[in-house]
Design goal:
This protein is α/β, with parallel strands linked by helices. About 40% of the residues lie in helices and about 20% in strands. The two termini are about 15 Å apart. The protein binds pyridoxal-5'-phosphate.
């Protein structure tokens, strides 16, 4: 792969942010919503702080990281005064202690056991940790996330726990080769989100429906997403 200069990458990032925001706005309007109804998250895994800070200086106010260790290693170099950070990758129970209090939200809660640990560590830290419940909408064995059939039950249990607050749902749909199939998963998630919201459960907010990545964020917005998580389309291909 061709190595780009720092200046070239900066200008690509600036351009991509504007371009992605325009496409999100168009899709939001097409879905009958306000352009402010959809939030753009920049997914920053493997991206060096200098490029993340460039994005933050040019219109990004929410970043997402996958790994606890990677995020903690980069955090001190990031300009997060006016930017929130969420954990979006799978979280192991034994890493909860390190991440609670370090991010503004954990989007990848997929078990009662994990939620219980987040609750416990949040009590110790004297904070409330906002979370999303991750749903394995395609029922794929290889994927993390709560089974569709168990989402309500898990939400009920978590809602009883102190110092953890559910703010919505997150999903990564299966790889689809056509829009119709993709729409099926996204709309199933949206229906679930609306159904749970209508129940008005105590200590449960359904404000955020986190779905859509580089290849499918427009379809996600057309199907009701309120937060899209975009990495590659914003920063370029990841080099591991
Ligand atoms: C990597 C990642 C993304 C972003 O993926 P891109 O295809 O690069 O936009 C979004 N969500 C999660 C959970 C991820 O791990």
């Amino acid at each position: 792969m061709e190595r780009l200069s720092v200046e070239q990458r900066f200008s690509d990032i600036d351009y991509n942010i504007q371009y992605i925001k325009e496409r999100i706005n168009e899709a939001a309007i097409r879905s009958g919503r306000d352009e402010k109804a959809v939030k753009l998250m920049a997914v920053t895994k493997t991206v060096e702080p200098v490029f993340i800070n460039r994005a933050i200086e040019n219109g990004i106010d929410l970043i997402g990281e996958n790994k606890v260790q990677e995020f903690l290693g980069k955090k001190d170099f990031l300009k997060l005064e006016n930017c929130s950070a969420h954990l979006i990758g799978h979280l192991q129970t034994n890493k909860v202690k390190q991440i609670v209090g370090q991010v503004d939200m954990i989007q990848s809660v997929d078990s009662v056991k994990l939620a219980c640990e987040i609750s416990k560590r949040s009590i110790s830290a004297g904070i409330i940790t906002p979370c999303l419940v991750e749903v394995n909408i395609g029922g794929e064995e290889s994927k993390t996330g709560t089974d569709y059939s168990q989402v309500l039950e898990i939400i009920h249990e978590i809602s009883e726990m102190p110092n953890i607050c559910i703010e919505g749902l997150m999903t990564i749909p299966p790889i689809c080769d056509n829009n119709a199939e993709l729409d099926k998963y996204f709309s199933k998630m949206h229906s679930l989100f609306i159904d749970i919201k209508a129940k008005k459960l105590d200590n449960v907010n359904m404000n955020i429906l986190s779905m859509g990545m580089s290849s499918d964020y427009e379809r996600a917005v057309l199907n009701g997403s309120t937060l899209v998580r975009v990495g590659t389309a914003l920063f370029g291909h990841r080099i591991y």
